[in-house]
């Protein structure tokens, strides 16, 4: 599994219908499942980003497909960050020269 931290901001369309945001979040979780992706956490936040989500995807292609499918709905713009667990990072640094 590949873990991602997804940072999202409402678009003009998304903020106009902010009251629907919790329902859209549930629909997003179901959409993610169709690509084999698990939404581990989803938070609405104050500050630079409106939403922060933690995902586990089977591969990068699934994550990209979900990102494009979500963006096409027009409610949010996202920035995805590949995340590494301590186990992953231990392997990475173990290969350093």
TrEMBL record:
Stored InterPro entries: GYD/TTHA1554
Superkingdom, natural source: Bacteria
Protein name as catalogued: GYD family protein
Species, as recorded: Bradyrhizobium retamae
